[in-house]
Design brief:
The chain is α/β, with parallel strands linked by helices and 447 residues long. The chain is built from 15 helices and 13 strands. A seven-stranded mixed sheet has the order 3-4-5-6-2-1-7. A hairpin with a 2-residue loop joins β9 and β10.
Amino acid sequence: MKNNIIAAVSTPIGIGAISIVRMSGKNCLEIAEKVFVAKNLSYKEIIPRMLYLGYFVFNDNSKEHCMMVYFKNPNSYTGEDIIEFQVHGGTILTQKVLKTLLEKGSSLAEPGEFTKRAFENGKISLDEAESIIGEINAESESELKASLNLAEGRLKNKIKNLQNKLTESIAQIEATLDYPEEDFEQSTKEIIFKGLENVKEEILQFIKDSENSKYIKNGINIAIVGSPNVGKSSLLNALIGEDRAIVTEIEGTTRDVLTESIFYNGVKLNFIDTAGIRESEDKVEKIGIEKSKNIIKNADVILFVLDGSRKINEYDLKIKDLLKNLKNVLTIVNKSDVKRVLEKQNNELEISALKERQIKEVKEKIYSLVINEKIDYNKTIIINTRQIDILHECEEIIDQIFISKYESMDIIAMLIKNLWNTLGRITGESENEKIIDLIFSKFCLGK
């Protein structure tokens, strides 16, 4: 059986001002007493949440001048006694502190084990734990905002509210089964299904509010496509604000895919500069062109770039035909800084990549094509794929309940209980142990 007391380094390994090494578990104060001394510190009268300045004493009697703080259960992150040592930042020093704690009786924590204990001790729900992962791994302001809101327990409270409504429905059914008169059953069904309508509306609203979740989490993928030398690479450079793509007058300069990202309105825009699509005998260029075609299929938005200083050519027309059945295609007419020869195009935006004209308008157009309305972070926006999948399962179950409206009360009760349990998988009330272990394994060591 694993030791009750776990220990780990909770700050990134490396050189810095401070490193934190923490322990959690019953009797961790006993280990602290073996390694930490401070003036006027009595472990029998230790004050929780007070920082004590003293010395961490290693096995060879060498000392590290540091601080220690004690969090008494249940008022701690894990719900157990916690000790944290704040030592000088440094890889060797931090590891030596951890090694000493392990030698004194603690065991090395597994990834996410501190947070898992917080969940097991009722300090946080499973959705709140996942929001912490979201905070740590957030790569955009929008992703961080969504995770911070969920960390407050908004989703948990709403799920609990839905479950309470379902519990009331189950109780009404149980009461009806005790008095099986037909008239009473019919009137009860009407009350139950009226309540279920409200539950369904809330579940659908969750899903609707989270429609933009994949873009909040992963960003919007934008493929820049066109025939050679229309200014695709120049456009990429203008969009990201630096010279990343090679720009020359030689056709076929871009032979591979180049991806660069920026943030706009808090959402990451992933621009993918592709090889110019044309007929080519060059083996390397042909590989790049095939990559371009695959990227087009998976892009959220396609910027179809044309050269405004010349008439449309056969390669432009072939690409236009390739894109004709795809959505979110924005035609970019480049080189507005010179005389225009190209005829007017549908859904076009005229720009100059060289002079950086209308570049902000391109970003705004991309954003509005994908994000239908401004993201309201006051709503409960779910960005976790597991949770969204569960909500879709709930949608299917509640649809099945309405299909079964004229079935017996026993069948309706069974389906409502299934819906209750499925909702509980979001907060962890009815999720199996293997899934829970997998979720917490995604945490870093010491969290």
